[in-house]
Design a protein that fits this description.
It contains 3 helices and 13 strands; from the N terminus they run E-E-E-E-H-E-E-E-E-E-E-H-E-E-E-H. The protein is of the alpha+beta class. The strands form 3 sheets. Strands 1, 2, 3, 4, 5, 6, 7, 9 and 12 form a 9-stranded mixed beta sheet that branches. Helix 2 runs parallel beside helix 3.
């Protein structure tokens, strides 16, 4: 485990079991996270390792609810206030982070990667019904953000931009879906998170503005580095 690292107004801590981003004050966050997803104000973003749900790898057939697992984790680690929860069975050795500064702004990204359930959007689903069944984890969990004050629509734009970059990197590195054989666009359990700050106003985060360029660039850096590790270390 590395020591907590301060990056301007938040701390970053990671071990072989988790990555925690903790803010000095609650931040506006948007995500598709399993716990406290959607638009939230939160003090923490937690990416935690959980056992694989792959029938060939798991040791038993019973998993506690993710919400309960997460509540116990935050209590054990003394995390006060709302926390956004991400889960992965990927190795935390894949964790990478990077940030860039420009004037009074920073742009940050960190990621863990696993591609055991790589898919292309539109592939035939593994679960051919609408039941709420926990899918297997592979998971690219990407967290990005800035200390700039991003509008709600800009935050969604940034989330889309980070996801586009993920797909671009997977395509460039020729990762394929085992279902269709076509280029993967992610995994079946990916989570993308974007956080905003209270600094300079940033109403837009698309491809035509500097904020969008920098968000995509930091995301690209961590994704490429992490996926190179995955390529070298996957079975």
């Amino acid at each position: 485990m590395i020591q907590p690292m301060e990056i301007d107004d938040f701390a970053l801590l990671n071990s072989d079991e988790y990555c925690i981003v903790s803010f000095n004050t609650p931040r506006r966050i948007v995500s598709n996270a399993s716990v406290n997803g959607g638009f939230r104000k939160a003090r923490h973003i937690v990416n935690m390792k959980v056992p694989s749900n792959n029938p060939k790898q798991r040791k038993n057939d019973t998993f506690p609810p993710l919400e309960r697992t997460f509540t116990e984790f935050t209590r054990e680690h003394g995390l006060k206030g709302t926390a956004v929860g991400l889960f992965t069975s990927a190795s935390m050795d894949s964790f990478r982070f990077f940030h860039e500064k420009l004037d009074d702004l920073y742009f940050f990204a960190c990621v863990t990667t696993g591609l055991a359930n790589a898919r292309r959007a539109g592939d035939r689903a593994d679960i051919q019904n609408f039941n709420d069944i926990r899918p297997p984890e592979g998971t690219i969990n990407l967290i990005a953000g800035t200390n700039g004050r991003v509008s709600d629509s800009g935050m969604i734009e940034a989330l889309c931009l980070a996801s586009e970059m993920k797909t671009a990197v997977l395509h460039a590195m020729d990762f394929r879906s085992p279902v269709s054989g076509k280029h993967a666009t992610g995994t079946g359990t990916d989570v993308t998170v974007f956080f905003s700050g209270s600094g300079r106003e940033l109403p837009y985060c698309g491809k035509h503005v500097k904020a969008g360029e920098l968000i995509a660039r930091v995301a690209e850096t961590v994704l490429e580095d992490s996926l190179r590790w995955y390529t070298s270390n996957s079975p």
